[in-house]
């Protein structure tokens, strides 16, 4: 490879992975995935037929239709969490309620597998909040910055040579007013020039 060789752009797989990561980051992805995974066993087990050699084992119950409805609704709610983020709280609460109902209706909630997935997915959907845009300062601080608020230490001003500049005490004129537009005030026992 020579210095004149142009740098190749990222491959197709890398671009797709980044697009998926960006898509996943803007929605309650894991909540939807767990809710969908919870709906599958709830809907599947009442209609499953297992074959052990020549013996056929069916799990069909009288509430098979109810299990199918609960499973399909959970899958739909999981997809709703992905594509309609504004309804995530409703979808989360509905998923929790359907998971609880599946305990009674559908083979102990799909043998507790579907129940736990749907319950966990609904809880994640209710607790998910959209992230702040870059540059917006919410409750988090950027790295390298300390806490803001009362009692916080302000950063030391630095000169162009990255050496700390010694603090200058405010001064006042003889008539009690600020000199040259510099205002001084006493705050927390120290002086602040503003």
UniProtKB/TrEMBL annotation:
Keyword Transmembrane helix appears in the UniProt entry: yes
Q: Does the keyword Membrane apply?
A: yes
Q: Which InterPro entries match?
A: DUF6114 (IPR046096)
The transmembrane segments are 28-47, 59-82, 89-105
UniProt xrefs under Pfam families = DUF6114
Keywords from UniProt, A to Z, are:
Membrane, Transmembrane, Transmembrane helix
* Region named Disordered: 135-194
Q: What is this protein called?
A: Integral membrane protein
